[in-house]
Amino acid sequence: MDIRVLKSTVKVLVEEGKGILAADESTPTIKRRFEIIGLESTPETNRIYRQLLFTTPGIEEFISGVIMFDETLRQKTDGGIPFPKLLSDRGIISGVKVDKGKVKIPNFPSEEITEGLDGLRERLLEYKAMGASFTKWRAVFLIGQKTPSAVCIESNADLMARFAVFSQEVDLVPIIEPEVLMEGTHDITKSEEVTYRVLKTIFKRLMDYKVIFEGMLLKPNWVHHGLDCKNKASNEKIAEATLKVMKEVVPSQVPGLVFLSGGDSPEESTIHINDMNRIDKVSWQISFSFGRALQQKVLQVWMGDPSRIKEAQKVFYKRARRNSLARTGQYKEEMEAENGE
Ligand code: 5MM
């Protein structure tokens, strides 16, 4: 392991004014996203869509890295350029989701653990040879009457720590994504308590495995009321509560927090990043690694129609730019007005 390689990758990923595009939807997830726009997901339609994103003019100003799914990392542009090469030629680094998805835990209804350690060492070497510099592993935690359970949190923490050490062993920066889901009726206080518990357990396990904090990134959820909660928290409260938990649990050596959007709207997601960057000076960079919040409007404009690719790319460029401004607290909601830039 070469810590200098890990540090230099991290430095690029959290460069000021830039964030990560999460385009690593697995086969079932991209199928669901395409269903909304009435499009069938096939390896070819998936490729055309990812090409739309990756060839958007100017995004390298705002996007430092792209997380891909295994299928995408192996795909090429119409002109035969492998996606990792296309991106690196534009100064964007490639990452890959290496977990193999979630499975139900017997005896723990509604809880899941993430799989993917079998054969991981070999896959990591292959991904690295294909041009990946970083990796990602996601685990989910559902808030309910009795969840998340200690078994769910502890087993996922252990798996994540092992994923992280295997990645660092071959100089790939691990992004650890423990997502406390927004689904549910819980209020923001419950989300704060659960997010704290989950992250505390994970960082303890990362420390046990001697994960190098300087060579990893955390991809957390924000502390947020449940989607079906009647008592909705304000954006200010969400930013404050999120920073409070992060300060309590995230070691200062971790270079950056690259937030997921978790189903919040693109605008709200940008506001949360902006607010957190305005509240306080903190030791880590506060950035984004959005899937839906960067892509939702792009899909709605594109609709699978080749004649709408340029228009969809303009939408992607604007969304990426607004998130870039949020990295330094310079985003303003007025920018959302049609001609607001
Ligand atoms: C883009 O979706 C990623 C992969 O999810 P699946 O394994 O369910 O297909 C996901 O990990 C994503 O990177 C994060 O959830 C962030 O995306 P959002 O939409 O929450 O910003």
From TrEMBL:
Pathway(s) of this molecule: Carbohydrate degradation; glycolysis; D-glyceraldehyde 3-phosphate and glycerone phosphate from D-glucose: step 4/4
Enzyme class name: lyase
E.C. numbers: 4.1.2.13
Catalyzed chemical reaction(s): beta-D-fructose 1,6-bisphosphate = D-glyceraldehyde 3-phosphate + dihydroxyacetone phosphate
Keywords: Glycolysis, Lyase
SUPFAM superfamilies: Aldolase (SSF51569)
One MF term in the entry's GO annotations: fructose-bisphosphate aldolase activity
InterPro entries reported for this sequence: Aldolase_I_AS (IPR029768), Aldolase_TIM (IPR013785), FBA_I (IPR000741)
Superkingdom, taxonomy of origin: Bacteria
One biological process term in Gene Ontology: glycolytic process
Family statement drawn from the similarity comment of this UniProt entry: Belongs to the class I fructose-bisphosphate aldolase family.
Record protein name field: Fructose-bisphosphate aldolase
